[in-house]
Amino acid sequence: MDNKETYELTRFNVISSRIRLARNIEGLPFPNCKSASVNRGKFLAFMKGAENAAKGLFDYNFFFMKNLNATEKLAMVERHLISPALQNNSATGAVILEKTEGMSVMLNEEDHVREQCVQEGFNLPLAYKRVSRYDDRLMDELPVAYDDRLGFLTACPTNLGTGMRASTMLFLPALKLAGAIETALSKFVNDYGLTVRGVYGEGSSALGDMYQLSNTRTLGETEENIIEIMERATVEMCLHESRAREKLAHKSGAELYDKVCRSYGVLLNAYMLTSAELMTLISDVKLGVILNILPLKDTKPLDKLLVLCSAANLTLATKGCAPAQRDIVRAQLVKGILKETK
Amino acid sequence: MDNKETYELTRFNVISSRIRLARNIEGLPFPNCKSASVNRGKFLAFMKGAENAAKGLFDYNFFFMKNLNATEKLAMVERHLISPALQNNSATGAVILEKTEGMSVMLNEEDHVREQCVQEGFNLPLAYKRVSRYDDRLMDELPVAYDDRLGFLTACPTNLGTGMRASTMLFLPALKLAGAIETALSKFVNDYGLTVRGVYGEGSSALGDMYQLSNTRTLGETEENIIEIMERATVEMCLHESRAREKLAHKSGAELYDKVCRSYGVLLNAYMLTSAELMTLISDVKLGVILNILPLKDTKPLDKLLVLCSAANLTLATKGCAPAQRDIVRAQLVKGILKETK
């Protein structure tokens, strides 16, 4: 499969690619280790060093969790910039957030430092390149805990070694509709040693037919190796989806066409939309874009719409309007963006 | 209430006004009386006389039921031009049908002659005027059975006297939504001695929130009297509906607005539409027009759409396309007309 074929196969189904590295600082107890006494000087040096590594590399804001309100934190979780675990660490949690939101460095999550880079579409190597640049500078700034045999030391043994998690966010509506998603996904877990989660990380369900595929093995593999396996698995998953889509279009063309058109009509006309319904409708419409049914050419504005319209982000955008009004504002926002996109 | 007020109150809720007169010919057994022997000469004279009465009065086509196929007959029933009873009389049934479809004279239904005139909107007097002109000419042509005590003689005693049925077709979505339709209608049956049916006559259910209000008493009342009672009752029913609509808009404004907008979106975008779903959606959209929610100013094109898209009429219009295709054609037709109407 050449680059063009891969691009065509993955362009609408791989929403984003993410690399995350877990790092810890020598001589500092892990953030969750409540019993150990923390040397204040060392702790401050760690926080300063982590920030220094970002200086000059990318434009950022530095946020302490304790200085953000609940809505602001939840909005960051909805935008996949911080994890629910960091959101809950009001004592020491912090994030160095690139203004364009590609890079984010969480401090005092499960590990001292969790560096992540998210790239739109299918591009794990670029995400890795960007995160590595920060990682190199971090290691210049701070004594990162590393063991010759175990590799990078992490709070949880499942992250030992490379400390790396590579993941792709996949949109798999046809496999879901065909009822084949469970089989397809469990095959991956077994064959590649990968894991699959809902879009908001572990334990969350697959909203909007989106699934996050990521590696589980971090030990005894090189970073390049992990990326290669993830790329192969992602392409294969998109192939499965593409075949399921063909079957679906062949088997229930008219019904599918009708469903997609109706969902588009409801999105364009509804006066109120809940967040959950929006997920379902956008999923139908995205499938419609892929199948060339609708007067829209790209799914990206729809993915952005999902984030923009998620509960906390909408609350922020509308400066805290009443919950009863939120569904109305969401529907207006959707209409506006869809009309622009056409 | 002055004319302008009455017009405003009734314009969207009274879809049409209908007057029907039942007449029979002296010396001929009633059509349903199978045992009696029919004098062929008298029968032919009756058929000829009924047609003569129409000649020069309105442009018409003369159809024998036996010469129409099942779809053509059903299409006439759907357009309210003939009754299901006439549709089933393939032996002697016939209809004299005005080309513009306002006047229709059924021959050998339950009675020898059933003259009817349907007018768009709320206009019983005009319907009566038109049907009377035919009736006068029929009496010049033929010996119509009349008794000084009982009035016009009819096959069924419920039609004795004037032989007249006056009816208005009402659109009552708010009363239906408010769950108040049963109470409101049964009050009318009692107070005014009227009856209420679904749009396709006796025994049919109320599709699309449409109800046919008509008089039951034909004996001991003058024609003018019946029309006056029907007019009073129709206006009162529209007042009930108007109040129910205000309450509904006040109580569940946003939900109602949302429902109407969604139905409009589905109508504009669906790839397939069944006849039953179309009824429901059109009903929502008509309510939206009345409430000034939608970019449509009139409900008449929507009422025409209902007739145009009913099963048999659609089959005729599409020259007998496969039933599987019919829902697709219906949706396309709807889209086209709605876009024109905007």
Q: If you had to describe this structure to a student in words, what would you say it looks like?
A:
Two copies of one chain form a homodimer. Chain A is an alpha+beta fold and 342 residues long. Chain A is 49% helix and 16% strand. Chain A has 13 helices and ten strands. In chain A, the strands form two sheets. The first copy, chain A, has an eight-stranded antiparallel sheet with strand order 2-3-4-5-1-8-10-9, with helices on one face. In chain A, strand 6 and strand 7 form a beta hairpin. The two termini of chain A are 32 Å apart. The mean pLDDT of chain A is 88.
Radius of gyration of chain A: 21 Å
Largest interface, Cβ cutoff 8 Å: A-B, 17 and 17 residues
Residues in helices of chain A, as a percent range: 40-55%
The quaternary structure here is: homodimer
Q: Given the helix and strand composition of chain A, which structural class is it?
A: alpha+beta
Question: Which segments of chain A are poorly predicted (pLDDT under 50) over 5 or more consecutive residues?
Answer: none
What is the global morphology of chain A?
Answer: globular
Distance between the termini of chain A: 32 Å
Reported for the largest beta sheet of chain A, the result is: 8 strands, antiparallel
Percent of sequence in beta strands of chain A: 15-25%
Order of helices and strands of chain A: HEHEHHEEEHEEEHHEEHHHHHH
